[in-house]
Specification:
By secondary structure, the protein is of the alpha+beta class. It folds into two domains: 39-195, no CATH class; 207-381, no CATH class. The protein has helices spanning 2-27, 59-63, 79-86, 90-106, 198-211, 218-228, 234-256, 264-284, 292-314, 321-347, 356-381, and strands at 39-46, 49-57, 108-112, 115-116, 120-125, 137-145, 152-157, 164-168, 176-179, 188-189. Keywords: Membrane, Transmembrane, Transmembrane helix.
């Protein structure tokens, strides 16, 4: 009888997995993306000027969204205006941005040898033929005049413009920095030589990884909480978290090195489906089954691709690729452990209570499942 019940349990898990994965795969091609990603700025000296080429969607700036405060444009009060700008033809959007440029220029901080200079726009290119539900990365070119004998520069911009990845070009040992919203770069020598050491890159990318869990990684937070609410002891929880960590470490490394590439239109709905799966399984099965770590490992591979898509947007410093990648991954793990610690502090005291599952674990898992199912729909149909 026990064997038959075990087979029935495995069958229900398999069916549940097939259903959730099939929904995500069938709808994956229609996925929408609204996540706020860093702007990428390449900086290079050209004679008596310092030229910048910035790759970023410009609609958020023109709409007035505080990109440093939100992780998703849909969460901003200006979301409707943002969507209207996304629907404009490229030439119309370019005109809107040029009208906005004087305001933006005043909020870009460029200090040459400590003295502020005002940037001047050279051009803006907004691509056409992009699905309105997807971000539309534009190319903005501007420059700052360099006085004779200029030796160094510092760069940053208003916190409302969001995170800026700044990469120096055309010199030996170039500077490469990840500037949180509103941060000003270190002093950068125009002649080069400010490339971060391996240790500096390692340390610098730990908070970047942590930031992509807390506060920006709500989907990963909910998945980890889904693992937490099936456990009433640290042993089963450790098995699940270890499987998840190992899996996303593997795919994060492979994707960051260029060996694996899966479109976000497929990965993001599947991540949402994984959240719904573990939460629904928590409701259907009161104890950790032998297949749970295997299932969690498979979903961890997906989440690793999700982390890799974030890294792919701004890359890792070429001279310290491996240390930066390790630092990013450690930051992710610290973020996950922080989520588990917070959950344990909140409800861990009730693990041994006979009503814990009925009063806390099942309702919490139901809420997580509903969010995951909604995200599958949102990331595919909306």
């Amino acid at each position: 009888m026990t064997r038959i019940q075990g087979l029935h349990g495995l069958g229900r898990r398999v069916i549940l997995g097939l259903v959730m994965s099939s929904i995500a795969i069938l709808w994956g091609a229609f996925a929408a993306a609204h996540e706020v990603l860093p702007a990428i700025a390449d900086m290079e000296r050209e004679g008596d000027r310092l030229a910048f080429t910035v790759e970023a969607p410009l609609e958020g700036h023109v709409a007035g969204i505080d990109l440093g405060a939100v992780g998703d444009t849909d969460a901003a009060p200006e979301a409707e205006r943002y969507d209207a700008l996304r629907a404009l033809e490229p030439d119309e959007m370019e005109a809107r941005f040029r009208a906005f440029w004087p305001e933006m220029a005043e909020r870009i901080e460029i200090l040459v040898d400590g003295a502020r200079v005002t940037p001047e726009i050279d051009g803006v290119e907004v691509p056409g033929g992009i699905d309105p539900s997807l971000p539309r990365p534009a190319t903005l070119r501007f420059h700052a005049p360099l006085p004779e004998g200029a030796e160094s520069v510092q760069v940053g911009w208003d916190a409302a413009f969001g995170t800026l990845v700044l990469r120096q070009q055309g010199v030996e040992a170039p500077y490469d920095g990840y500037l949180e919203a509103g941060a000003l770069s270190d002093t950068i020598r125009l002649s080069g030589g400010d490339q971060a050491s391996a240790w500096e890159s390692f340390v610098a990318y730990i908070p970047v990884g942590f930031d992509h869990i807390l506060p920006k990684g709500l989907d990963h937070i909910l998945f980890v909480l889904g693992l937490f609410f099936l456990a009433t002891r640290f042993g089963p929880l450790l098995w699940q978290v270890s499987a998840f960590t190992l899996a996303h470490t593997v795919t994060l490394a492979l994707a960051a090195l260029g060996y694996v590439s899966v479109p976000a239109a497929i990965v993001e709905p599947l991540i949402a489906a994984s959240i719904a799966f573990v939460a629904i399984e928590n409701i259907l099965f009161p104890r950790l089954g032998v297949w749970r770590p295997v299932i969690v490992f498979g979903f961890g591979l997906l989440h690793g691709l999700g982390f890799a898509s974030v890294l792919g947007e701004f890359g890792l410093p070429a001279g310290s690729f491996v240390p930066a990648l390790i630092g990013f991954n450690i930051g992710v793990e610290l973020g996950q452990l922080t989520v588990i610690a917070a959950a344990f502090l909140a409800v861990g005291w009730a693990w041994r209570k006979p009503w814990y599952r009925r009063v806390i674990a099942v309702p919490a898992s139901a809420g997580i499942a509903l969010v995951g199912i909604w995200w599958v729909i949102e990331r595919t149909l909306l």
